Amino acid sequence: MILVQSPEQIGAAVRAARKEQGLRQPDLAAACGTSVRFIVEIERGKPTAQLGKVLHVLRLLGLRLTVGPASQP
């Protein structure tokens, strides 16, 4: 598990999972019911991507997003 602190890190995780599963961006877009452009934007770390759609993409790739309190330094 990795600590995600930026949209770019989410994008990198999406890209890695997609490639591990042998999916092309158009394949993932079709499975998610989104445009290829949306998948490209997620993978590039677009900070204004719709959260609900991003969560749907993560779920379809078998990824999960966990939220919890920040650790104290």
Characterise the protein shown here:
This protein has helices at residues 7-20, 25-32, 36-43, 51-60. 55% of the residues lie in helices and 0% in strands. The chain is globular. The model has no long low-confidence stretch (mean pLDDT 93). The protein has one domain: Orthogonal Bundle (434 Repressor (Amino-terminal Domain)). It is mainly α. The longest helix is centred in the first third of the chain and has 14 residues, at 7-20. α2 (25-32) crosses α3 (36-43). The chain is built from four helices and no strands.
Q: Which descriptors apply to this entry?
A:
globular, mainly alpha, 434 Repressor (Amino-terminal Domain), 73 residues
Question: How is the topology of this model organized?
Answer:
Elements: H1 7-20, H2 25-32, H3 36-43, H4 51-60
Helix pairs in contact: 2-3
Q: What is the CA-CA span between the terminal residues?
A: 20 Å
Described by strand count, sense and barrel closure, the largest sheet is: none
Which CATH class is shown?
A: Mainly Alpha
Number of helices: 4
Low-confidence stretches: none
Sketch the topology as an H/E string, one letter per element. HHHH
CATH homologous superfamily? lambda repressor-like DNA-binding domains
Q: Residue-averaged pLDDT, rounded? A: 93
What is the SS-derived class?
Answer: mainly alpha
Compute the gyration radius: what is it? Answer: 12 Å
Helix content class: 40-55%
User: CATH fold name, please?
Assistant: 434 Repressor (Amino-terminal Domain)
* Tally of distinct domains: 1
